[in-house]
Write a structure and sequence with these properties.
Blueprint: H1 5-24, H2 28-44, H3 46-53, H4 59-70, H5 76-87, H6 94-108, E1 111-118, H7 124-138, E2 142-149, E3 156-161, E4 164-169, H8 170-180
Parallel strand pairs: 1-2
Antiparallel strand pairs: 1-3, 3-4
Helix pairs in contact: 1-6, 2-6, 4-5
Length: 185
């Protein structure tokens, strides 16, 4: 059900409610940071995702683990929101809710999400340069970069912002040359 239209339809009202609370208490960035942390944890730990989604595990156990996972410094409003998700049996949508919240936050702050794929990891200077270029191309005030490594690119990068793709990879250049010469890539 991950990423399905049904899960997004369920997650969206929760994300909007979370944004409403964040706006009321001027916590939009703090919630965004914590949502990114939760998403990173869920991405790195399929076991945690299974634990949260399991209908066999008691809600009290889920709450205990989530409290420990979020830590002492977790915002009380966000922690209560997560506990409410457990109570309402909507905790399985935590990942989608966090993604939808971040989408709302990017819209609010005029920030674009750029998926950058490179042959090897970018250093800070390269990441900053890419972010600046994306900002110029899109006119956005901020750029959030999500990076992936793909050794098949050989060199260079591809950048996806929304539905636009900028291919500055060596593989892409070779494909274009091949097509211009009448070959099939």
């Amino acid at each position: 059900m991950k990423g399905s239209l049904v899960s997004i339809a369920i997650a969206e009202p929760y994300a909007q409610a979370l944004m409403s609370v964040a706006l009321s208490y001027n916590l939009t960035d703090a919630f965004g940071k914590e949502c990114r942390s939760l998403l990173a944890l869920l991405e790195k730990s399929p076991d945690l995702e299974e634990f949260i989604a399991s209908p066999v595990i008691k809600e009290t156990d889920k709450k205990t683990v989530l409290r420990q996972m979020m830590g002492e410094e977790a915002n009380l409003y966000l922690l209560n929101f997560v506990m409410l998700l457990v109570d309402k049996r909507r905790i399985i949508f935590l990942e989608q809710i966090c993604q939808q919240y971040l989408k709302l936050l990017r819209k609010l702050t005029n920030t674009v999400l750029a998926e950058v794929t490179s042959a090897k990891e970018l250093n800070n200077e390269q990441s900053e340069s890419v972010a600046n270029k994306i900002g110029e191309l899109t006119g956005a005030k901020g750029v959030e970069i999500k990076t992936k490594i793909d050794p098949d690119l050989i060199g260079g990068i591809t950048i996806k912002v929304g539905s636009q793709v900028f291919d500055a990879s060596l593989r892409g250049q070779l494909r274009r040359v091949s097509l211009s010469l009448g070959g099939i890539a």
